[in-house]
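Hypothesis: this fold can be encoded by more than one sequence.
Test: take the structure tokens below, design a sequence, compare later.
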């Protein structure tokens, strides 16, 4: 079993879940580093002062020892893991706007080699081996699973990537702002009118056989968009 799978399995175990809840009940919901209150218990991270590895994860004097576990917030957790390949200077950008507004082009023009990009269209193409924008419904659960795993990695700043770019429509203001807050992301709006999006669709070769479908996507985005 791969390293990350072993560690992920441990954090999903009943033993860890029960211990974490026990520590929260005993210590409260204040970050043990910055002393800030953490309103939601799901956002309280049980941080091991000794990094867990496949070699020590079954040593319960390390993995399940309350004396080696701190309850901290996401920001402090990210700072702690700087020594494990996390970089405090990582930036996260959430690029949103209607279909055909140029979100992907914006990212290509601003990203650097080694950045991480999360784009549902690209993920569908990667797992289906089908042409871009051909997205079989039966693969949705697999694709969204990969998508959410990548967002979790970005949220905790896991890995050695440079900056992160998340591409999506995100028409709903509440969901958009909540995701940006969760990820510590800067919002970048591709502000293009409905008329311009439809004009671009008319001359787009990649979608020439799906114009009716994509025109509905564009119209629906503007109908549901909240500032």
């Amino acid at each position: 079993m791969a390293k990350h799978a072993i560690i992920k399995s441990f954090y999903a175990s009943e033993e860890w879940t029960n211990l974490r809840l026990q520590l929260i009940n005993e210590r409260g919901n204040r970050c043990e580093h910055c002393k800030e209150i953490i309103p939601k218990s799901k956002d309280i991270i049980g941080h091991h002062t000794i990094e867990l590895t496949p070699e020590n994860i079954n040593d319960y004097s390390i993995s399940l020892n309350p004396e080696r576990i701190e309850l901290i917030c996401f920001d402090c957790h990210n700072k702690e893991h700087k020594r494990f390949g996390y970089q405090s200077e990582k930036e996260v950008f959430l690029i949103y706007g209607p279909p055909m507004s140029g979100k992907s082009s914006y990212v290509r023009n601003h990203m650097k080699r080694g950045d991480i990009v999360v784009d549902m269209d690209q993920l569908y193409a990667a797992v289906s081996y089908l042409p871009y924008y051909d997205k079989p419904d039966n693969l949705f659960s697999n694709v969204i699973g990969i998508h959410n795993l990548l967002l979790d990695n970005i949220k905790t700043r896991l890995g050695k990537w440079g900056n992160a770019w998340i591409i999506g429509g995100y028409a709903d203001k509440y969901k958009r702002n909540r995701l940006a807050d969760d990820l510590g992301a800067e919002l970048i709006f591709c502000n293009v009118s409905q008329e311009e999006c439809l004009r671009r669709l008319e001359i787009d070769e990649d979608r020439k056989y799906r114009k009716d479908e994509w025109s509905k996507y564009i119209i629906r985005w503007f109908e549901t968009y909240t500032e």
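The first strand starts at residue 45 and ends at 48. The radius of gyration is 21 Å.
Hypothesis status: open.
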